[in-house]
């Protein structure tokens, strides 16, 4: 399993609400997808009760991440072309139009 600390990421937003995270992702990303709770990015499951927004920006992937006991963050992982391709081809993924 990949550890988040092993990835080249930047925190775009911290201590946010789910709505604030979704708004930021929609504002900064060229493409936005909604994935079911438990969807994995780099084998890291995304936690949530419904569909979770994930976006692409160039070759980066942008997503909401919950760190237990700390809260919600929006992270941007750079050089994520493989994950972006997997996201685009996912059956259980909904692309925002």
Poorly predicted parts: none
Largest sheet: 6 strands, antiparallel
What is the 3D shape? globular
Helix content: 10-25%
Written overview of the protein:
With 97 residues, the protein is of the alpha+beta class. It has one domain (4-95). The protein is 20% helix and 43% strand. It has two helices and eight strands; from the N terminus they run βαββββββαβ. Strands 1-7-6-5-2-8 form a six-stranded antiparallel β-sheet. A two-stranded antiparallel sheet has the order 3-4. Strand 6 (60-67) and strand 7 (71-77) form a beta hairpin. The chain is globular, with a radius of gyration of 12 Å. It starts with 8 loop residues before the first strand and ends with a strand. The mean pLDDT is 93.
Concise overview:
This is DUF1894 domain-containing protein. With 97 residues, this protein is an alpha+beta fold. It has helices spanning 18-28, 81-88, and strands spanning 9-16, 31-36, 40-41, 44-45, 51-57, 60-67, 71-77, 94-95.
């Amino acid at each position: 399993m990949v550890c988040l600390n092993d990835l080249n990421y930047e925190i775009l937003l911290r201590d946010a609400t789910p709505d604030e995270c979704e708004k930021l992702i929609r504002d900064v990303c060229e493409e936005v997808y909604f994935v079911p709770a438990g969807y994995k990015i780099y084998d890291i499951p995304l936690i949530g009760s419904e569909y979770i927004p994930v976006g692409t920006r160039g070759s980066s992937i942008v997503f909401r991440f919950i760190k237990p006991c700390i809260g919600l963050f929006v992270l941007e992982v750079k050089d994520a072309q493989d994950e972006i391709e997997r996201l685009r081809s996912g059956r259980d993924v909904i692309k925002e139009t």
